[in-house]
Recover the amino acids of this structure.
């Protein structure tokens, strides 16, 4: 990077131009239109935003959105960490296999994966029938159309986005550090919580932010596996635009979601900057 | 190299789809659109009309965006009748050309300036007999009675004529006193079973919920239950207070294929087109001449054999109150 001819800042712009133009034409301009509609329909003013902020229903949808994204992020971290750790210390041959499985799941169609979960989780689904057959439950568990279903379905989809950044960070941790901790008398738990986790924090943080931000705008999985009581913002937007043909309100909700996402992105940039400076 | 080939294949696919002579028909997909393609579009093209490209699903937000942008790519759209009435008033649709479409043969319930019926259907009480072997449900009141008929029940998720009427009828409102809808009363009734509702978003999902036993009882489009029966499944149907609603054929304002669109609608609403579609789907024809062309045994399974116990959803009322009801509906769902 800092070898003899350091590239001039901005010299890559020419090559990036097609992508930039594409984004401008098909993303930035439509977003500006949408924003315009949110303050001009049905008349000029902030009535759509006032309605969004002022209504208890929409407040609940906002709360659901953050709550679901938060729960999904937390569960994803808890599951991804051991997986990433195992991948890092596994023999290379095995870790390649596990890695391939993770990537394969990522490349499978999202809708197909979500339907598969519906088949597994519903009251007459495989999981409930198995639990019933082995006598663990009498009544089927309610695993879809609620928070449980959304969480299971979304965590599964988000896992690779957490495992990959975590793996990058964990791989860089020198195993000798853990040996040193053990030599100094740390229990396994202490080695994990006081050595490994702090060292992996940058990976956890960037993975968590990515998962959280992606979860905020998710539509398919919450819509199929969640109930209306856990409605998230993306569903509200679809409802307003598709069913009620209310582009103003849909636009306002979409713009608020975009603002939150950009805000979180700013946090992430800051965080990454600090990490690189350190 | 590979990429170039894909790009070329894509480009040729796009240009053939957008061939100047073709027209585009948009509907809701599934078995309904298959039947529309087979019994409306295919004969239309055979008789010398343009090729009809099938698209979907119908999306009201998209139609509005197309019309406002002056870039209409859907020539004829199958939409809900109440939306069609509202959209006609809002200037999103072309007035229909009744010199091409013969409205004298159509059921007057489903004829208006901007929309004619596509087909009409009933919301009916349906159940899985395996779950209620002794005393099957019979009335809309039973649909709301979780003590006598326990288990999840499934209802149409989107704000549309049907479920609100069912709640009111189940609560004892007389069919001729339904309108104007008493929304407070309807939501109060719906509140009593809210925790037991699983919403279906499309016809296929409603079939899946019933067939799997996930929701052993619910409120369905009659054609979807007929389809399950045709597949050999035992399904209980009660026509008592079946609530009719209709789909409409509309032409988005500004289409370049207006003439072809009108001719397509004329073909689709012809006695033959309606009879063949009804036989294939279990939905009722809007052409009064279709009945004579149909097998009486099939006719007996359609909503138009059930007019004695039928309640007509008031499409004009819904067209005027669609937004207001919709906002309350979705707010109630999210609570």
């Amino acid at each position: 990077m800092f070898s003899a001819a350091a590239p001039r800042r901005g010299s890559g712009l020419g090559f990036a131009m097609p992508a930039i133009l594409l984004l401008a034409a098909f993303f930035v301009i439509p977003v500006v239109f949408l924003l315009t509609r949110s303050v001009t329909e049905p008349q000029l003013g902030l009535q759509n935003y006032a309605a969004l902020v002022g209504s208890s229903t929409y407040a609940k949808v906002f709360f659901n959105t953050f709550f679901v994204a938060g729960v999904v992020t937390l569960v994803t971290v808890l599951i991804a960490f051991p997986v990433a750790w195992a991948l890092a210390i596994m023999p290379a041959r095995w870790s390649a296999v596990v890695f391939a499985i993770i990537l394969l799941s990522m490349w499978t169609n999202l809708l197909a994966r979500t339907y598969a979960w519906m088949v597994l989780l519903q009251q007459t689904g495989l999981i409930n029938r198995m639990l019933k057959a082995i006598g663990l439950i009498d009544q089927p568990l309610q695993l879809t159309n609620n928070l449980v279903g959304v969480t299971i379905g979304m965590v599964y989809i988000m896992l690779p986005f957490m495992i990959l950044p975590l793996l990058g960070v964990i791989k860089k941790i020198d195993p000798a550090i853990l040996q040193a901790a053990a030599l100094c008398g740390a229990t396994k738990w202490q080695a994990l919580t006081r050595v490994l986790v702090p060292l992996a924090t940058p990976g956890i943080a960037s993975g968590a932010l990515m998962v959280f931000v992606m979860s905020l705008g998710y539509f398919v999985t919450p819509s199929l596996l969640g109930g209306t009581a856990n409605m998230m913002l993306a569903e509200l937007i679809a409802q307003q635009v598709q069913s009620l043909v209310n582009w103003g309100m849909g636009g306002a909700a979409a713009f608020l979601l975009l603002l939150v996402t950009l805000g979180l992105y700013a946090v992430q940039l800051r965080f990454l900057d600090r990490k690189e400076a350190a | 190299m590979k990429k170039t080939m894909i790009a070329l294949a894509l480009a040729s696919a796009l240009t053939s789809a957008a061939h100047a002579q073709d027209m585009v028909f948009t509907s809701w997909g599934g078995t309904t659109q298959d039947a529309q393609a087979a019994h409306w579009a295919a004969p239309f093209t055979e008789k010398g009309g343009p090729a009809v490209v099938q698209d979907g699903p119908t999306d009201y937000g998209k139609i509005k965006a197309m019309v406002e942008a002056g870039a209409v790519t859907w020539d004829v759209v199958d939409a809900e009748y109440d939306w069609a009435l509202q959209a006609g008033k809002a200037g999103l649709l072309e007035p229909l050309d009744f010199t091409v479409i013969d409205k004298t043969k159509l059921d007057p319930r489903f004829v208006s300036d901007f929309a004619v019926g596509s087909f009409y259907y009933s919301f009916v009480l349906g159940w899985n007999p395996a779950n209620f072997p002794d005393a099957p449900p019979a009335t809309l009141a039973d649909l709301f009675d979780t003590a006598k008929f326990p288990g999840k029940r499934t209802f149409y998720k989107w704000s549309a004529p049907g479920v609100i009427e069912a709640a009111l009828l189940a609560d004892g409102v007389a069919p001729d006193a339904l309108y104007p809808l008493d929304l407070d009363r309807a939501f109060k009734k719906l509140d009593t079973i809210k925790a037991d509702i699983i919403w279906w978003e499309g016809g296929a999902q409603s079939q899946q919920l019933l067939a799997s036993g996930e929701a052993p009882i619910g409120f369905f489009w009659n054609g979807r239950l007929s389809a399950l029966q045709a597949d050999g499944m035992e399904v209980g149907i009660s026509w008592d207070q079946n609530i009719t609603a209709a789909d409409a054929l509309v032409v988005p304002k500004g289409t370049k294929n207006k003439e072809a669109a009108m001719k397509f609608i004329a073909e689709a609403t012809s006695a033959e087109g309606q009879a063949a579609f009804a036989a294939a789907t279990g939905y009722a024809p809007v052409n009064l001449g279709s009945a004579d062309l149909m097998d009486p045994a099939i006719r007996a399974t359609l909503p138009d054999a059930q007019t004695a116990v039928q309640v007509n959803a008031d499409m004009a009322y819904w067209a005027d109150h669609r937004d207001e009801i919709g906002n309350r509906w979705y707010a109630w769902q999210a609570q």
User: Anything to note?
Assistant: Residues 144 and 192 of chain B are 8 Å apart (CA to CA). The longest strand of chain B covers residues 236-250. Residues 1-6, 8-19 of chain B have pLDDT under 50 and may be disordered.
